[in-house]
Amino acid sequence: MQPILQIKGLRKAYADGFEALKGVDLEIAQGEIIALLGPNGAGKTTLISTVCGITMATSGSVTVGGHDIISDFRAARSMIGLVPQEINLEPFERVKNTVKFSRGLFGKPQDDAVIERILRQLSLWDKRDNQIRELSGGMKRRVLIAKALSHDPRLLFLDEPTAGVDVELRRDMWEIVEGLKADGVTIVLTTHYIEEAEAIADRIGVIAKGELLLVEEKERLMARMGQKQLDVQLTERLEAVPQALSGYDLVLCEDGCTLRYSYDTRGERTGITKLLRDVSEAGLVLRDVATRQSSLEDIFVGLVHEEPGDAA
């Protein structure tokens, strides 16, 4: 099956020489949710803006549903919905009319049933006759999503969709995204919230300094790069790791009572049994042991602090 979005060698450079995108390659399948993680200035919004035709690429190609965004821009753009970071709505317009207007911009015929379905899906039906200025910030974000869905796009971009909203509303938005996926909509979201990507994404992309460092299935990424840690808590404080345990990759934590041992979950042997035996033989008394799995946040932080090109 042809990818709904295909990006090849996408580059965006400005007159001053700054490269916002450096040869990005990406394919996205129909119906998946992909989260793009990256620090401020990484190139996330530039990538979305280029695909949506807001920014012109310096080189490279992009197709949406097989339609080139330059030579066949009308067909490509009709398949795309965009929810921008900024809330830029006409404050005195009513919710229903705002969504109707967006549908008309794409040449779609008036269809009150479609508008009602979208507003109900986003819990906006009861607010349909309210002016935008009467809505909370979270409800305004829902209106942005309704506008983006008004012309029945098959590819939806959410640029920081939950920025500035409370935790409860953020989780409501996650449910909305899951519902859209169930309807067959492909979703690309950018986010600063690691837990957002961990909760709803099928694949994770990490972008930094204009380069896409990796794109991988979430579970496979965590299995491949995740590490486990064993914290060996002692009854007495140490000044340094004992010489008898120097053969292990141990870190003495700040409390002086905890030895931290990292190991690969994919290894045939973890070395834990031998470590605990050697700890006892070194005259140290155990108080407790605890394990911790590396989170997606740990992996993300490690990747963006590498130099581009090092994250193979």
Task: Please explain how this structure is put together.
31% of the residues lie in helices and 28% in strands. The chain folds into two domains: 5-223, P-loop containing nucleotide triphosphate hydrolases (Rossmann fold, 3-Layer(aba) Sandwich); 227-293, Alpha-Beta Plaits, CATH 3.30.70. It is elongated and about 80 Å long. The chain has helices at 44-51, 73-78, 95-105, 112-121, 137-149, 167-182, 194-200, 218-225, 272-281, 296-304; strands at 5-13, 19-28, 33-37, 59-64, 67-68, 80-83, 155-159, 186-191, 203-208, 211-217, 227-234, 250-252, 258-264, 286-293. The chain has a six-stranded mixed β-sheet, with helices on both faces. Helix 3 runs parallel beside helix 5 (137-149). The chain has ten helices and 14 strands. The protein has 312 residues and is of the alpha/beta class.
Keywords:
elongated; Rossmann fold; 312 residues; 10 helices; four-stranded antiparallel sheet; six-stranded mixed sheet; Alpha-Beta Plaits; alpha/beta; disordered C terminus; 2 domains; 28% strand
> By CATH's scheme, which homologous superfamily of the largest domain applies?
P-loop containing nucleotide triphosphate hydrolases
Largest sheet: 6 strands, mixed
Instruction: List the secondary-structure elements in sequence, H or E.
Output: EEEHEEHEHHHEHEHEEHEEEHEH
Count of spatially separate domains: 2
Please outline the helices and strands.
Blueprint: E1 5-13, E2 19-28, E3 33-37, H1 44-51, E4 59-64, E5 67-68, H2 73-78, E6 80-83, H3 95-105, H4 112-121, H5 137-149, E7 155-159, H6 167-182, E8 186-191, H7 194-200, E9 203-208, E10 211-217, H8 218-225, E11 227-234, E12 250-252, E13 258-264, H9 272-281, E14 286-293, H10 296-304
Parallel strand pairs: 3-8, 3-9, 6-7, 7-8
Antiparallel strand pairs: 1-2, 1-4, 4-5, 9-10, 11-13, 11-14, 12-13
Helix pairs in contact: 3-5
